[in-house]
Amino acid sequence: NAGVTQTPKFRILKIGQSMTLQCTQDMNHNYMYWYRQDPGMGLKLIYYSVGAGITDKGEVPNGYNVSRSTTEDFPLRLELAAPSQTSVYFCASSPPTGTNTEAFFGQGTRLTVV
Amino acid sequence: GNSVTQMEGPVTLSEEAFLTINCTYTATGYPSLFWYVQYPGEGLQLLLKATKADDKGSNKGFEATYRKETTSFHLEKGSVQVSDSAVYFCALTRPPYQLIWGAGTKLIIKP
């Protein structure tokens, strides 16, 4: 029972480099999310998706892009890495069965931009 | 707008002590309320939830009651263990898809 799987777990990027954080879920959830968690802070929503082919911006989308070509996958792209993007990134998913449903999280990707 | 305020951490307790982590919220309508826990090096996982006023969520000895009159959802446990050391997040729903998060409270339990 894999749940939500994120790769890689750790990554160091140089300023200006690009990378894709991978996220896949095997629970057939419609809703998927990308969050960032800065030290001592809560979670900030970067992008979300309510189904394949549909994505929308969250609170802090600048510097990121996403796509949702399948129900299972929701990759997050950083085009020009900046030190301000140093953070822990979490992918999550949830079923669209009402507002009291649980969100399931991946184990996170710790990204450092130097 | 909707928001969640948690007590600042870290909270340091001895094993078997009583735990309270405060959480208050502002919201329109009737959101559902959640406590999530994050163990070191892991993602967040749901600890308990409550979907309407006066509901009590409970799991693993933790409890929280949805108090609409005080807009609170405080987390309690009668006797904490070292294994409870983690970061605890309070959250509420903003329909149709979003969770609004508190900043998290780090809990340290000393043997």
Structural class of chain B: mainly beta
The termini of chain A sit apart by 36 Å
For the CA atoms, what is the radius of gyration of chain A? 13 Å
Q: How many beta-strand segments of chain A? A: 11
Overall geometry of chain B comes to: globular
Cα shape of chain A = globular
Strand residue percentage of chain A: over 45%
By oligomeric state, this entry counts as heterodimer
Helix-strand topology string of chain B:
EEEEEEEEEEEE
- Biggest sheet details of chain A: 7 strands, mixed
Question: Could you report the average pLDDT of chain B, rounded to the nearest whole number?
Answer: 92
Q: Kindly state the mean pLDDT of chain A as a whole number?
A: 92
The percentage of residues in β strands of chain B lies in over 45%
Estimate percent helicity of chain B. under 10%
Structural class of chain A: mainly beta
How many strand elements of chain B?
Answer: 12
**Helix content range of chain A:** under 10%
CA radius of gyration of chain B is 13 Å
The largest contact between protein chains, plus residue counts on each side, is: A-B, 23 and 23 residues
Low-confidence stretches of chain A: none
Characterise the protein shown here.
The complex is a heterodimer of chains A (114) and B (111). With 114 residues, chain A is mainly β. Chain A has strands at 4-7, 10-13, 19-25, 31-37, 43-51, 54-57, 64-66, 76-78, 87-94, 104-105, 109-113. Chain A has no helices and eleven strands. Chain A starts with a strand and ends with a strand. Chain B has strands spanning 3-6, 11-14, 19-21, 23-26, 33-38, 44-50, 56-59, 62-65, 75-77, 86-94, 98-101, 105-110. In chain B, the strands form three sheets. In chain B, strands 2, 5, 6, 10, 11 and 12 form a six-stranded mixed sheet that branches. A four-stranded antiparallel sheet of chain B has the order 3-9-8-7, with no helix packed on it. In chain B, strands 1-4 form a two-stranded antiparallel ribbon. The chains are: A mainly beta (114), B mainly beta (111). The A-B interface holds A 4, 31, 33, 40-43, 45, 48, 50, 58, 90, 92, 94, 96, 99-100, 102-103, 105-108 and B 4, 31-32, 34, 41-46, 49, 51, 89, 93, 95-99, 101-104.
